[in-house]
Amino acid sequence: MPKNSKVTQREHSSEHVTESVADLLALEEPVDYKQSVLNVAGEAGGKQKAAEEELDSEDRPAWNSKLQYILAQIGFSVGLGNIWRFPYLCQKNGGGAYLVPYLVLLIIIGIPLFFLELAVGQRIRRGSIGVWHYVCPRLGGIGFSSCIVCLFVGLYYNVIIGWSVFYFFKSFQYPLPWSECPVVRNGTVAVVEAECEKSSATTYFWYREALDISNSISESGGLNWKMTLCLLVAWSIVGMAVVKGIQSSGKVMYFSSLFPYVVLACFLVRGLLLRGAVDGILHMFTPKLDKMLDPQVWREAATQVFFALGLGFGGVIAFSSYNKQDNNCHFDAALVSFINFFTSVLATLVVFAVLGFKANIMNEKCVVENAEKILGYLNTNVLSRDLIPPHVNFSHLTTKDYAEMYNVIMTVKENQFSALGLNPCLLEDELNKGTGLAFIAFTEAMTHFPASPFWSVMFFLMLINLGLGSMIGTMAGITTPIIDTFKVPKEMFTVGCCVFAFFVGLLFVQRSGNYFVTMFDDYSATLPLTVIVILENIAVAWIYGTKKFMQELTEMLGFRPYRFYFYMWKFVSPLCMAVLTTASIIQLGVTPPGYSAWIKEEAAERYLYFPNWAMALLITLIIVATLPIPVVFVLRHFHLLSDGSNTLSVSYKKGRMMKDISNLEENDETRFILSKVPSEAPSPMPTHRSYLGPGSTSPLDTSGNPNGRYGSGYLLASTPESEL
User: Fold this and answer.
1) Scanning 216, 380, 634, 715, which has the fewest C-beta atoms within 10 Å of its C-beta?
2) Strand 189-192 and strand 594-599: pairing?
3) What is the SS3 assignment for 600?
């Protein structure tokens, strides 16, 4: 060893000395440089790429096939929101008119940002924490916020799976337990339960038998033991599906992603054959054009786009990080987005076909009940028989005949009409009552199906599978970035997350738990999620650089993405999201947050505002979800937290052993690696070539130079490990 080497100096000096790369490598046995990740002979291209792929395959799991990956993304993005929330929003916001803002926002926000998340995950091959630390270290808190939002959503989302489990097991009986009101005995007299008689059998079963709900969020009422057991079953299912990472969840996706489409197809065929199905579908697609200009409709459409595609959760990034870097993620983004929208429309057809059938049944029931009232008034001479059209036959009374008779009575008895208590029994009114909850409206419709238990079992098994697919992605959004960043044991951490989430989730299986689900779903997760998606767009488009990002996509995919994405990422998407976020904040200020409470004594819903303590909890949850973003920014801005910018990780392969040399800060290290002066040293990050915008080419294209951009015989592995 030379006398002036730093290793020798350290033996004779107490001063801190940083070892050089040359000194450290001198202590090693000769290495086959042609097979190393750090290629020293200028043999770029195929050999280096093969070495990188071999390194990645050893360090990171991978999907067994492209189909498995696509099914995982579909399973995550297609969830309960597509099957029930989308039809509900369509009915609420103008029918077919709602499709216009949804499609517009899907094209200018949803697909571009979905493609962005797929691309950064595949390019950097890390979870959300590692990805956003690499893109912009000061905005590294985005990844932590994504994990927290995933936790919030997972807590209440699995409760919904627990509800589905409860209904699934209750479906194995005939007649279905929610088809009739229960009868209670008061001494020797049997009477119908008053709460059920005032509402309906399905409504009573949901609020009293399933949830046993309290009158307000302030009345805890203790744990609902039935739902507690169902929540335990739900978390057990999720835990078994994700405990091995993509090795276990990937196999589950083959069933959980495909089975719902089989059930939807069966329901569609059965629904279209039902009497009145066409009425429901026509009602659905009849646009109410005034709704298209309502800002509230656009805001709800944007929220649905975020939730439908899983933007901001980190699950999309986590799944794509297990891909090879040459995977065509542009095709994946278009395919998954199309399937997601197609599923929403298919589910809407099914829901409104079935609800059209239900509306006809309820309308006929209304006609029969009101016809009996009219007969009673005729027999007691309250009404004259002259008011009844001669062609009306009470034994075979049609809705058209009843409408004619109703209009005559209303015209003649104008002053006394309200005292008669007659209902117009309009089909439109039944259709306008809305889809409500899957656990009320659809379950009531299924009670009128032939072989109703079979359809009920299929329906709730479909909901369980849809929820499971989404929960696998949600858990990946939590576990993948934490495991990547902190190197914790995968199985132990995953099981710990499930156990922790179960105990925290007991909050949602109290008798007042449904009101907390509303708090988390409508407020605590939505606003932080919007902030996360905006900052993701800004981090890539304005800080990392859209031109640089487009150039890297070109190198990764082998073709230049459409110019459309450049303008969406750079201008249109962030502007639209800023407007929508502002509208959401204004809406919260104008309309105080609240929830629909079920009042037992009235057997009806009543809208209540959250009490002060609940408002404090809601605000705290929003702050907790977004707090990592400013905290990490401040810590790294003032250099209180290392951003990894002074760390160079040089990895090379010898057999199956990996060596890392870090914290190399001296100039002689740079000269040794690059044979250049320090000012010419490239960043430890993957080389980013200049990109002048859409349609331009890099002026520094070095495709003809085997030694790369710097003319050196050294090529650094194109991995972001040094930044992490």
Assistant:
1) 380
2) unpaired
3) coil
Are residues 158 and 500 in contact, defined by beta-carbon separation less than 8 angstroms? no
| Tens digit of each residue's pLDDT (9 = 90 or more) over 293-308 | 788 888 889 989 999 9
Choice among 173-187, 495-509, 638-652 with the minimum mean pLDDT = 638-652
The secondary structure of residue 180, as a DSSP letter, is S
Distance CA 248, CA 250 (A): 6
> Which CA distances in Å does 499 have to 349, 477, 502, 675?
38, 17, 5, 54
Looking at residue 190, what DSSP letter applies?
Answer: E
Q: State the Cα–Cα distance between residues 518 and 516, nearest whole angstrom.
A: 5
- 573-590 and 526-538 helices cross at what angle (nearest 10)? 160
Can you list the pairs that 634-640 forms with residues at least 24 positions away whose Cβ atoms lie under 8 Å?
A: 636/137, 636/138, 636/140, 637/138
Q: Residue 98, SS3?
A: helix
> What letter represents residue 180's amino acid?
E
Structure tokens at 508: 């949602």
Does residue 75 have a known ligand-binding role? Answer: yes
Q: Look up the pTM and report it.
A: 0.79
Contacts of 577 (CB under 8 A, 6+ apart): 109, 302, 530, 533, 534, 537
- R_g over Cα of the chain: 31
Interval 286-340: pLDDT, tens: 877 777 778 888 888 998 999 999 999 999 999 999 998 889 999 999 999 999 9
Number of C-beta neighbours around residue 30 at 10 A? 6
Pairing of strands 604-609, 594-599: antiparallel
- Annotation-wise, does 533 bind a ligand? no
**Element housing 185 (H / E):** strand 183-186
3-state secondary structure of 664: coil
Contact residues for 365 (Cβ-Cβ < 8 A; gap 6+): none
Give the per-residue pLDDT at 437: 60
Supply the pLDDT for residue 46.
46
Residue 78 in marked binding region: yes
Give the three-state DSSP class for 267: helix
- Judged by average pLDDT, the poorest of 88-102, 460-474, 621-635, 672-686 is 672-686
Helix intervals (H) in 413-545: 417-420, 427-432, 443-446, 452-486, 490-504, 513-519, 526-538
* H/E stretch holding 653: strand 650-654
Q: Does residue 340 have a known ligand-binding role?
A: yes
